[in-house]
């Protein structure tokens, strides 16, 4: 099905169609991110980054009627990645500046830091489909139904992925 440009009546090419869809849905994506707790200035940045990512994969989108949900999912995953990255950075910075408590020795602090690094490396090694479920459910504390809604997946798929991710993390961290 060919799309026509609203004013000129000419046929839209893939780039034109993409630009029209992005213009139509960017505000909605930004509002959805803000509703989910992303700061407004971050929401705009993430929405723009999501548009760039979507552009790269636009040709593979089979059903253009689902563009808005697809763009929201891309943006939400980017927002989660950004938040997780900020949390790791903050944790590293606070660990570097924290005063060691008298009850904790330097060896305890080093062991805790090594464990933390191992966990982060193990999480980063997971495939994106598993990692995002772990971040949302286990780290951010969302329920299964909420994670399923956020990712646009059936609840059973979320449970299965979380189980698989925990199994893999357990194997890696042994």
Characterization of this structure:
Helix 1 runs antiparallel to helix 2 (40-57), helix 2 (40-57) packs across helix 3 and helix 5 crosses helix 7 (155-173). The protein folds into two domains: 1-98, Orthogonal Bundle (Rna Polymerase Sigma Factor, Chain: A), CATH 1.10.1740.10; 107-174, Winged helix-like DNA-binding domain superfamily/Winged helix DNA-binding domain (Arc Repressor Mutant, subunit A, Orthogonal Bundle), CATH 1.10.10.10. The chain is mostly helical and 174 residues long. The chain contains seven helices and no strands. The chain is globular and about 60 Å long. Helices cover 75% and strands 0% of the residues.
Helix-strand layout with pairing:
Layout: H1 14-35, H2 40-57, H3 67-97, H4 106-125, H5 128-139, H6 144-151, H7 155-173
Helix pairs in contact: 1-2, 1-3, 2-3, 5-7, 6-7
């Amino acid at each position: 099905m060919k799309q026509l440009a609203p004013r000129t009546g000419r046929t839209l090419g893939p780039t034109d169609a993409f630009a029209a869809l992005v213009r139509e849905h960017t505000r909605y994506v930004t509002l959805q991110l803000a509703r989910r707790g992303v700061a407004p200035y971050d929401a705009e940045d993430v929405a723009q980054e999501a548009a760039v990512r979507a552009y790269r994969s636009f040709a593979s989108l089979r059903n253009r009627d689902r563009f808005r949900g697809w763009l929201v999912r891309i943006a939400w995953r980017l927002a989660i990645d950004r938040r997780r990255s900020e949390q790791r950075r903050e944790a590293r910075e606070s660990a570097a500046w924290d005063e060691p408590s008298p009850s904790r020795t330097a060896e305890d602090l080093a062991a805790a830091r090594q464990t933390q690094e191992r966990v982060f490396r193990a999480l980063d090694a997971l495939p994106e489909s598993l990692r995002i479920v772990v971040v949302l459910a286990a780290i951010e504390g969302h329920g299964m139904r909420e994670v399923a809604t956020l990712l646009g997946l059936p609840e059973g798929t979320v449970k299965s992925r979380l189980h698989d991710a925990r199994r893999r993390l357990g194997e890696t961290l042994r």
